[in-house]
Amino acid sequence: MGYKIGLLGLGTVGTGTAEILLNCEGRHPLLKELEIYRVGVSSIDKPRQVQFAPGVLTTDLEAIATDPAIDIIIEVIGGLEPARSLILKAIAHGKHVVTANKAVISRYGDEIFSAANQAGVYVMLEASVGGGIPIIHPLKQSLGGNRIQCVTGIVNGTTNYILTRMQEEKGEFEAILADAQALGYAEADPSADVDGLDAGDKIAIIASLAFGGRIRLKDVHCEGIRHVSATEIAYADKLGFVIKLLAIAKSNPDSSLSVRVHPTLVPKNHPLASINGVYNAVFIEGEPIGQIMLYGRGAGAGPTASAVVGDILNLVGILKSGDASELHPLLSCSHEVYCEISPIDELVTRFYARFLTKDRPGVIGKIGTCFGDRNVSLESIVQADIRGDLAEIVVVTHDVREGDFRQALAKIGSLEAIESIPSILRVL
Amino acid sequence: MGYKIGLLGLGTVGTGTAEILLNCEGRHPLLKELEIYRVGVSSIDKPRQVQFAPGVLTTDLEAIATDPAIDIIIEVIGGLEPARSLILKAIAHGKHVVTANKAVISRYGDEIFSAANQAGVYVMLEASVGGGIPIIHPLKQSLGGNRIQCVTGIVNGTTNYILTRMQEEKGEFEAILADAQALGYAEADPSADVDGLDAGDKIAIIASLAFGGRIRLKDVHCEGIRHVSATEIAYADKLGFVIKLLAIAKSNPDSSLSVRVHPTLVPKNHPLASINGVYNAVFIEGEPIGQIMLYGRGAGAGPTASAVVGDILNLVGILKSGDASELHPLLSCSHEVYCEISPIDELVTRFYARFLTKDRPGVIGKIGTCFGDRNVSLESIVQADIRGDLAEIVVVTHDVREGDFRQALAKIGSLEAIESIPSILRVL
C-alpha cells in the first residue's frame, strides 16, 4: 500500500521535490511508499529537468486537488491565488497538504487551519520558512517545554546577500541590488524582499508557533533595507556592529508581543552577526533551554525540497501509526486566539541615529537636551565627521521607548542647526 | 484523561524536568495532561529544590519501571546500570521510555530498540546528544529526504570550554582542567570528557540516525585533548585555525563510514570555529539540503530538561492521535544492519605535525623525502622556530591516507636528526 501525491507546481521547488521522490535510493526507506500520481503545470509541453509517465502531467490543477485517489497535495506554486483556493479545495476533499507558501499561510492561515481541523487533515509548512533549516518542527515539536522569550531571525536570503556584499565591498544598495538581480539572487521586482515583506510573512508564522496564537499580518511592523547606506555600514563597523535585516518576535513583560522586521545593528560577537550571504539563521531564546540557533541556506530548490519531503515523511509516519481519530496535537494547529501585538511606539530598544548639523558650538548639547527632555538616555553622542561645512553627529541610545525617541527626533529635526537626519536604525 | 509519568532519577536533569512539568503555565498546553506519578531517588529525605506530594518519592526504582499505572518512564539516572536494566524492564512492561543516557544507548541501543519494537513502545533520546539543541528529531524527522554526507559536531561542552580557554588565555591543558574542575565545568574524574569517550558515545548515536544503521561503539576511533598543548594552539592560530574536539561521521565513496572523535584544526572561517565555551553545535551536510548547523548549550539542567520534555510531548502527541497498531516509522528504530566502519588507517584527511629536529641543513629535505616516498603530499613544511639547539618544523599535508602518513612518520621518527614528534593533529 502506498501514498499518492498530487504535486501542484513544477518550478524550482517542485522540480527539486520530484527529483528526491523519483530518486530515493540512499534516502529514508519510507519514500519508496510514495508515488507522484499527478503533477499540475501551466504548460504540458515545456522542456523539463524531470520526466514523468504519460498522463501524470496535467494543466487541470483543480482536478488534482479534488482527485479521490490522491492522499497528499504538495502546493509549491507560490503566490496567493490560485494557491489559496487549491489548498482549501484539497482540504475540503480530505487531503493532507504540504506547502512552501509563506504568503498564503501568513495571510490565510486562520482560514486554512480552521478548514483543516474541521476536515481532520494536516497542513504542513516547514518549507515556508528558512528553506531546509528545521525551524517549524523544532518550534512545534521539540521546544514545547519552554516559555519562548524571543525569536530573532535572518530569514530573507536576498537582503542578507545584499547587506553582506555592501559590508564586504563598501558598496551602495542600488548598485549591489542591480548586480544581485543580474546574478539571479534578487527578483526583477525586488520589493517583497528588500522592503521586508517576505521576512514579515515568515516572522508572523514563526511568532504564531513560538507564542501559540494567531498573528494578524497587518500588526507586523516591516521596514526594508533600501535606506541602509554604505555610510551607516561603515559607522556601524566602527562602533562594533554589522547591519542585518532582522525579523524579531518578542514577548513583552505585559504578555503582549512585539513582532517586527527592520535593519538592525547587531553586535559583532552575536552569533547572528556572522550569518552571511544567502544563509539564514533563527536564534531562539527560551526558558529553560537558553539560547539556540538554527542555521542553513534559506532558499533554493534543494533546501526547500528537503523541507517539503521532510513534511511528507512526517505525514506518512503519522498516517501509518494512527487511526486518525484525533489529529496529532503538535502537528495540527489549535490556535484560536489572536496574539496581542503592541504598537511599534511602545517598543523598548536601543537606537542609532546620524545627524547632519551646522558645524557650530552647542549643537551636541541641544541634541542631548532634546533627548533628555523625552527621557531618552544616551550611551554615546559623538561628532563623527565633517562633510563640507556640515558636522556629522552619531548617537547611540540605551534602551528607550520608541515613541519617546521619535518625539525627541521630531523636536531635534525642527532645530535651526539641524540640516537632516539621514539615518535612524535600531540596535540589537 | 492524563498520562502518568515515572521519573527515574532526581539529579540535575531530573530536577529540571520536574520543574517544567510542575510549573507548566506558558508552556505547551499538552503538558497539563501529564502527571508526575512516581519519582525514583536514592534517598527520600535529602533536601530538594522541588516538592512532591507524599508517596510520590520512592527508593524502589524497579517498582516504578513495572508499575501498571505508569505510561511513560523518564530515565535520567545516567551511567550503565541500573539504567539499562530499568529501561529494559519498563519496555517489557509496555511503557514508553524517554532517556538522556547516551552511554546506555550507544552501548545497548540494539538490545533496547529490539525490545521496544517487540513491545510496541517508543524509546526517545533527544536529550542524549547536545542538551536542548534539536538534533535527534531533525535527523529522524526533518532530514529524511536527504542523503547525509557528513555530520561534524562539537558535542562535548567540557572539552570545548577547556580548549576555548586555552585559546583565549594561551594556557596549558592541566592548569585549565584543574580550574574547570574547581568551577564545576569538569568532573573530578574527567576521563569520559577529556579522552573523547562521551563525544564517542554521541557521534555513535548521531551516525546511526544519519546513516540508518547500527554502530558498534568499538569501531568509533576516539582521541581526547590531553596532548593538545598551548604550542599547538599558537601554531594553529598562526596558520589560520582553531583547535576543536570534533566528532565526525562521514560517508565514504565505498559506502563505508568513518566515525571518529579527535582534536582537529578547524579553519577560522568555518561555522564550527566560532562555537566557544560550553556551547555545542552539529554541522550537517546532505544532498540536497547543503549545509545546516544546529547550535546551543550542550548540557545543563535547563537545556537537557527541555529536550526530555520535548520528547514527552512528542510521545503524547503520537499516543493521542494513534491507535498504536503500528509504531511511527520515523520515531521508532528499525535499524537491523550494522554500518561498515572503515579502519582509521583508511581515513583520507589533512594532517598537521610538529617535529623537533637537530638544527642542521638538509633535515627538511629528509622529512619531505620520507613523506614523498609514502605518497604523502605536503601543503607546507616550514622551520617555525628554534628551541635551544633544536629546530621546530611544522608540516601541513594535503588530503592523504592516514595509513600512509603514519608509515612516513615511523620512518621520520627513526631518522637520526629527529629528536621527537610532539604533535600530530588532523585538519578539517
TrEMBL record, chains A, B:
It catalyses: L-homoserine + NADP(+) = L-aspartate 4-semialdehyde + NADPH + H(+). Its EC number is 1.1.1.3. L-homoserine binds at residue 187. It is an enzyme of class 1 (oxidoreductase). InterPro entries: ACT-like_dom_sf, ACT_dom, Asp/hSer_DH_NAD-bd, HDH, HDH_cat, HDH_CS, NAD(P)-bd_dom_sf. Residues 352-426 form the ACT domain. Pathway: Amino-acid biosynthesis; L-methionine biosynthesis via de novo pathway; L-homoserine from L-aspartate: step 3/3; Amino-acid biosynthesis; L-threonine biosynthesis; L-threonine from L-aspartate: step 3/5. NADP(+) binds at residues 8-15. It holds the Pfam family ACT. GO terms for molecular function: homoserine dehydrogenase activity; NADP binding. NADPH binds at residue 102. Belongs to the homoserine dehydrogenase family. This is Homoserine dehydrogenase. It comes from Merismopedia glauca CCAP 1448/3.
